[in-house]
Design brief:
- It contains 23 helices and 18 strands.
- The chain is α/β, with parallel strands linked by helices.
- β16 and β17 form a beta hairpin.
Length: 653
């Protein structure tokens, strides 16, 4: 008997619809995999072995996803009485089930395409994270794509497929099967998802040095389910660790700089930062720009003339040439800029529970008599911004502070950046009138899909792509600086312009370093001389560097350092995804992964590629110490706003 005949026979049995559903899921998953492979062809490591990995391992994960998807159908076929199963009601229910399944599979395939286009990975923690903010995400989709047309076409296409398969869908309704026999088959089938959950590893696909091979070997639905159930990663459970005293000792020696008073206590990163001379209480405006990769700036070689304003500010101020973002999401940038702490695996601290009264840049400024502000162009409930910043030393202002008449343009993410800066000027004027020095972190939103902004500002029409959004944000920043120059507080203000993360994190390797390279400009005419700063700098160093520039002495818990006083041997940076934790130092990259893995690479800072090296245990231990201590301090409530406790602490010196 041929395979075709055997399949036909199986489809005619009581559990034939289960086989049909599995075949449909695997077929659509295969077409999705082929489409993504073609799209990623330039970055894929082409070889026969890699193609076999993609399609064989991919089929395995397709079947793993199917084991969960068929569960409702198996239960229905098991429990629905034989007499009723051969009737019209059963046929209608099967039509409805397959209509929903096929529509869901095709919709998922299209969603995976758009997700891959944005992130070059299967569904992961980011996709799960988006479920929390359905208003913004659905609004973004509606403003970015012709969603009504897409849904209409999908419904019609699904109806056509169900019609074409109508005989196969209902052929099993002609069969009557005894309950005992159904029970045996059903129990076997219901054991499959249990086996998959406990015995199948999400990591089995990660056996190539090429990230695209690994991602294409997976199944988006399976990866989504895994991310949903594992959206928090406990460091001690999943990553390499050291005895906590050893980690503390290593970190203590890394953080003991010339700015630290000698023979002062050090415990859990708590230490006294002592700068001699008078403190310089300048106002500080920290602009964190959405998705501004260094490669967009003409200063870094871009020839599209997208950032004339930022290029001008870079030439007039101090440009940081070698700065790297902590992560790939806005919340990671906000975490790095406010907490100055390495990224912890899983969810950002900004969105975690028990994240109040932490030691932040805003709390340090408040201790110096400043009014610390966080100003955002969208609604601050998104990504838990209002809750986090308002409970950690900042006064929060979001788009709700603007009247409709004050808004020139808005999309689902927030008001146009020019309106955000108008709001910011108004709030900063209030502080000046109240004789309060101010520290304000301003978070832009316009450089984000759907890439829309007011017409007539720049020479690129709205809604045409990323380049237009970059140029509009550049225009808005330039306009803000020009208007700020007219303010009485301008001459005593330090402007710091930095990206929250890059526009894309896709690369051939696990952590492509070029996709974390971001710009930063210190701008303050009369105070900051034009120049370029070349030392390797981490995003978590920005806060301590600002405080150091102001010559502040303070009690610190920050993992970040004042890079102006940092020794060449202390240069390092942190880059990460939600589960891979990177440590850059001495032209090497250490990556810590779940399952307690650690590896050393030589990164190419131009292409992002990396070559594996023999393990550098010293660097691995430094990486472990930073990441382990960051998780340890947060989880044990030791990263609070009281940096050095009153009781004597033992020095590590």
């Amino acid at each position: 008997m041929s395979i075709k005949e055997k399949t036909s026979k199986l489809l005619e049995t009581r559990f034939g619809p289960v086989l049909l559903a599995t075949l449909l899921l695997c077929s659509i998953s295969l077409l999705t995999r082929i489409s993504l492979l073609i799209y990623s062809a330039p970055s894929f490591d082409w070889s026969v072995l890699n193609l076999l990995k993609v399609f064989i391992i991919g089929l395995f994960y397709d079947l793993a996803a199917a084991s969960f998807a068929i569960t409702p159908l198996v239960i229905y076929l098991w429990l629905f009485p034989s007499k009723g199963y051969t009737g019209k009601t059963s046929r209608v229910l099967l039509y409805i089930y397959f209509f929903v399944v096929i529509l869901s599979l095709i919709f998922n395939a299209i969603s995976e395409w758009f997700f891959w286009e944005e992130f070059s990975v299967r569904y992961n923690f980011i996709a799960v994270d988006y479920l929390v903010y359905t208003t913004e995400v659905i609004g973004n989709i509606r403003q970015s794509y012709p969603i009504n047309t897409i849904l209409t076409v999908l419904v019609i296409l699904t109806a056509v497929i169900v019609y074409l398969l109508r005989r196969i869908i209902t052929v099993s309704t002609h069969q009557q099967t005894a309950f005992g026999q159904r029970t045996k088959i059903a129990l076997i089938l219901l054991c499959l998802p249990v086996f998959t959950y406990f015995c199948v590893s999400h990591k089995w696909k990660n056996n190539s040095s090429n990230q695209y091979v690994n991602e294409l070997s997976g199944n988006g639905m399976y990866d989504f389910g895994f991310a949903f159930w594992h959206n928090q990663l406990d460091y001690d459970t999943f990553y390499k660790t050291l005895p906590i005293k050893t980690a503390e000792s290593i970190l203590g020696h890394l953080l003991q700089q010339d700015t630290v008073a000698k023979n002062t206590p050090f415990k859990n990163t708590a230490r006294n930062i002592v700068n001699t001379g008078t403190e310089n209480k300048m106002n500080v405006v920290l602009i964190s720009v959405e998705s501004l990769s260094a490669e967009f700036l003409g200063t870094f070689g871009n020839t599209q003339h997208l950032t004339p304003q930022l290029d001008s500010l870079a030439n007039a101020g101090l440009l940081f040439n070698n700065l790297y973002a902590s992560g790939t999401r806005t919340v990671r940038g906000l975490e790095a800029l406010s907490l100055c702490i390495p990224p912890t695996p899983g969810q950002s601290i900004v969105k975690r529970p028990d994240n109040k009264n932490l030691f932040t840049l805003g709390s340090v400024f408040r201790s110096k008599g400043y009014n610390s502000r966080f100003i955002y162009g969208g609604y601050g409930y998104f990504d838990n911004m209002n809750e986090f910043f308002s409970n950690n030393g900042y006064q929060v202002t979001d788009r709700s502070a603007l009247q409709d008449s004050e808004i020139h343009y808005s999309n689902i993410w927030g008001v146009a950046d020019e309106d955000l800066f108008t709001l910011s000027l108004r709030e900063l004027d209030k502080d000046y009138k109240n004789n309060k020095p101010f520290f304000a972190q301003i978070m832009t939103v316009s450089n984000h899909r759907p890439y829309t902004y007011p017409e007539g500002r720049i020479d690129i029409p709205s809604h045409t792509g990323r380049e237009g959004a970059v140029k509009y944000t550049d225009y808005a920043i330039g306009k803000f600086i020009r208007e700020a120059k007219q303010k009485p507080w301008f001459s005593n203000t330090l402007f710091v312009i930095v990206a929250d993360h890059c526009a894309s994190s896709a690369g051939k390797v696990q952590l492509p370093v070029d996709k974390y390279h971001i710009p930063m400009i210190f701008y303050s005419p009369g105070h900051i001389a034009p120049g370029k700063f070349e030392k390797l700098t981490a995003q978590i160093d920005i806060g301590p560097t600002i405080l150091g520039y102001l010559n502040f002495s303070y009690n610190s818990k920050f993992f970040g350092q004042d890079v102006f006083k940092m020794k060449d041997t202390d240069e390092r940076a942190f880059i990460s995804t939600y589960q891979s934790l990177g440590y850059l130092k001495n032209n090497k990259l250490v990556i810590l992964d779940p399952n307690k893995k650690a590896a050393t690479y030589k990164p190419d800072f131009t292409t992002g590629n990396a070559t594996k090296l023999p393990a550098d245990q010293k660097l691995i231990n430094e990486a472990i110490s930073n990441y382990q201590m960051a998780s340890y301090l947060y989880q044990n409530g030791l990263y609070g706003s009281n940096p050095i406790r009153n009781k004597p602490l033992k020095s590590l010196n």
